[in-house]
Amino acid sequence: MISSPSDYPRAYICDECVAVCWSILWDDDHGTDQVRLFYSYSHQDEKLRLKLDEHLAVLKRQGIINEWHDRKIAPGVEWESKIDEELKSASIILLLVSSSFVASDYCYGRELDLALKRHKEGKCKVIPVILRPVEWSHTPFASLQALSRDGKPVTRWKNRESALLDVVRGIRMAVQELRATPLVPTKHGVRDERAESTNDTSKAKAGEKPANRSA
């Protein structure tokens, strides 16, 4: 594609133009939308949040996620309305679960209620991350798949760095699924387009008529 001006003056393309073109083609194939991530956590767990944020650096450098937490609220901003705004715009909400989180009226009340409401409406994914041992099996989010592996608290791992790495891998998996097949809000909750596609294929093989997606 690249030629010298003397050979093909009208077809000459500079290196910079080619680089821009390849960048556009790459973005078209791989998508440029960042997944907005929201931390719901108690300030008692700030050190652990900072470590998790550190482990998520690769995803941020790749442009895959764009995270937000309340420490990013600028002076003079009404913090409660700002938190609500960010909660409502997040695609993934991380619940950093601990005894402090459960004991916090704001985290367990306002933030959790709004997060689960949006999750049930199919507007986001809520992922509990168990930081410290706590009774969470009877919480409103107990039915959700938690991190780290098997819901083991991060502080119970022999190597805390390995625990956070496991959490990050789980978050990456959730982000990849979200980018590949976005959740579709419905009246009754989340519709997974992959599940419907698989079901339709099975019906077609059996000679049945697939469901009408426009319904």
Describe this structure in words.
Helices cover 45% and strands 13% of the residues. By secondary structure, the protein is an alpha/beta fold. The protein has 2 domains: 32 residues; 148 residues, Rossmann fold. Strand 5 and strand 6 form a beta hairpin. Helix 4 runs parallel beside helix 6. The longest helix is centred in the last third of the chain and has 21 residues. It is globular and about 40 Å long. It starts with 14 loop residues before the first helix and ends in a 10-residue tail after the last helix. The N terminus and C terminus are likely disordered.
Largest beta sheet: what is the strand line-up? Answer: 2-1-3-4
Average predicted confidence as pLDDT: 80
* Stretches with pLDDT under 50, minimum 5 residues: 1-13, 15-31, 186-215
* Number of continuous helical runs: 8
Radius of gyration: 22 Å
Sheet having the most strands: 4 strands, parallel
Top-tier CATH class of the largest domain: Alpha Beta
Q: According to CATH, what is the topology of the largest domain?
A: Rossmann fold
Order of helices and strands: HEHHEHEHHEHEEH
Shape: globular
Strand elements, count: 6
Q: In whole angstroms, how far apart are the ends?
A: 48 Å
CATH architecture of the largest domain: 3-Layer(aba) Sandwich
Q: Going by CATH, what is the homologous superfamily of the largest domain?
A: Toll/interleukin-1 receptor homology (TIR) domain
Global structural class: alpha/beta
Number of domains: 2
* Strand percent estimate: 5-15%
How helical, in percent, are the residues?
40-55%
